[in-house]
Amino acid sequence: MSVQSWTYIMVGLSFALYIGIAIWARASSRADFYVAGKGIPPLLNGMATAADWMSAASFISMAGLISFMGRDGSVYLMGWTGGYVLLALLLAPYLRKFGKFTVPDFVGDRYYSQTARFVAIICAIFISFTYVAGQMRGVGIVFSRFLNVDITLGVLIGMGIVFFYAVLGGMKGITYTQIAQYCVLIFAYLVPAIFISLLMTGHIIPQIGFGGTMADGSGIYLLDRLNGLSQELGFNTYTDGSKSTIDMFFITAALMVGTAGLPHVIVRFYTVKKVAAARSSAGWALLFIALLYTTAPALAAFARTNLLTTISNIEYSAAPEWFKNWEKTGLIKFEDLNGDGQIQYRGPKSEIKNELTIDRDIMVLANPEIAKLPNWVVGLVAAGGLAAALSTAAGLLLVISTSIAHDLLKKELMPDIGAKQELMAARIAAGGAVLIAGYFGLHPPGFVAQVVAFAFGLAAASFFPAIVMGIFSTRMNRQGAISGMVVGIVFTAAYIIYFKFIHPELNSAEHWWFGISPEGIGALGMLLNFAIANAVSRVTPPPPDEIRALVERIRVPLEN
Fold it and tell me: Do 385 and 375 form a contact (C-beta atoms < 8 A)?
């Protein structure tokens, strides 16, 4: 069967599974909609957390980033993995002990302030919409290539699927759907990696193949071959980087603490019965995440090697079928500058002009076709990419809907609203969020992982300090927390908007503050948040005694 036929089968079956699960696990109460009734077993919650956390950026874009950036791309690998460990060890048990539905709920009660709650709501919605833009773009990319539909139609189809199980099922439906989506995405990621590792290095385990020699009998290590190809074509050596050490550090830090402040990941730890179950599910999630994240560097190297050896210096008329297919999507563009009919793919160090533009988001999706794997593997990867994007999109949309219905309406504007009315408001908010998310998917402010990196930076600069100080500081008061969050997110958002949208021509190391790129500025925003919050708290009245006692109880995560 053709690639398109296999894709229709794989995607159709996976969508039918998701819809079926959503109907079976539909929410019937407020607790079901917000936290799945707090009845998800740790193992299953670990799978759902892994799917929620491993978005389109992890599945589609991370290996693509590493394949183009080489060593510099490792910041995404280190930041996101380290961030999850930070979240699991430092925050999850204490937040579960607190027992609230949402992060704004924690902030509002811990800082005894409706203003603090409102600022947290704005931060949660802003971060979630920034993040969800990357997911919807990933959906559009998969649909446009593999189902031969326009990106606009692809995004609309994805919106319809997410709308169905997010609005109908709430957290309960999303959780069980994400369990299925994890199984789909991890299988879709590992199968082609194993295939290609066997073909290129003779090793069935991609992580071993990554450090192994080529299977052609030359005795050359894979990375040495890739370094040689990169240098010949004028690119930076793959295992060396071009980013400064300070920028590498700040991007990694922003991604790490941003992960620990992401509201859609934190809420997953409320869906289990006990604090011990929260710890256990965090451990399971780390194992499930590691399966993909330890494979990503190997997949990136395989994809880059195959790309450089397949399309450089060949006649355009003789370009492989996969190249022509992706060219139709506009994600690969060839411009014959010298009129010789050859594809000249060159880096900045080459004297020959580059004629080829490749969107890095296609690397994982195109990799099976480049390596000439069976058509069913190509269809499987398409289904996996959609699973990764839709699982995270659903979690983010739930954060938006609960922030509006529970934190804004129930806690601030309409405190007398009944449970049924609150549940209806949450569903309406989720529907509205789907529409806005679709718009951002059609008009994204960057490639998938870049957009997600901005979301992590915003989370780092706003939520993370407020949560950490709320758990570990009995002196931190509402004035300090509010001041820190406002300064952190405003500074970070302004920096990103200035260099990315107002003056993109200035977006280079010589113009950045201290050499820190917009992707890493969230770490500096976090430091400002901590500094401002502590300074303000020292010159304003301390928290009430009952809040101090509450903090003491949170810091001992006993069973509840």
Answer: no
What is the residue type of 540?
Answer: T
pLDDT recorded at residue 444: 63
Distance of CA 375 to the CA centre of its chain: 27
Count helices and strands in the chain by DSSP H and E runs = 24, 4
Q: β-pairing, 342-343 with 356-358?
A: unpaired
Which of 72, 79, 46, 76 shows the shortest CA–CA distance to 59?
76
Are the C-beta atoms of residues 287 and 88 closer than 8 Å to each other?
A: no
Tell me the domain boundaries of the chain.
3-304+370-449
User: What global pTM score does this model have?
Assistant: 0.79
Residue 434 in tokens = 């789907």
Give 206's Cβ-side CA count (13 Å radius).
21
3-304+370-449 has which fold?
Answer: Hydantoin permease (1.10.4160)
pLDDT at 525 (0 to 100):
92
pLDDT in tens, 236-265: 888 877 788 888 899 888 888 877 766 677
Residue of 16, 13, 39, 18 whose CA lies nearest to 172:
39
Q: Which of these, 318, 351, 306, 358, lies nearest to 335 by C-alpha position?
A: 358
Q: Which ranges of 443-477 does DSSP label H, i.e. alpha helix?
A: 448-472
pLDDT confidence of residue 197: 93
Please give the pLDDT value at position 483: 92
Q: DSSP for 258-277?
A: HHHT-HHHHGGGGSSSSHHH
Distance CA 447, CA 357 (A): 14
Predicted pLDDT of residue 560 = 47
Nearest to 119 by CA among 128, 129, 127, 108: 108
Mean pLDDT score, 139-144: 72
* Number of residues in the chain: 560
pLDDT at 535 over 90: yes
E strand intervals along 247-319: 314-315
Compute the distance between CA of residue 62 and CA of residue 74 in angstroms, rounded to an integer: 9
Helix, strand, coil percentages for the chain (3-state, nearest 5): 75, 0, 20
What stretch of H or E contains 376? helix 375-402
* Contacts by 89-92, CB closer than 8 A, 24 or more apart: 89/282, 90/260, 90/468, 91/260, 91/266, 91/467, 91/468, 91/471, 92/266, 92/269, 92/278, 92/279, 92/282
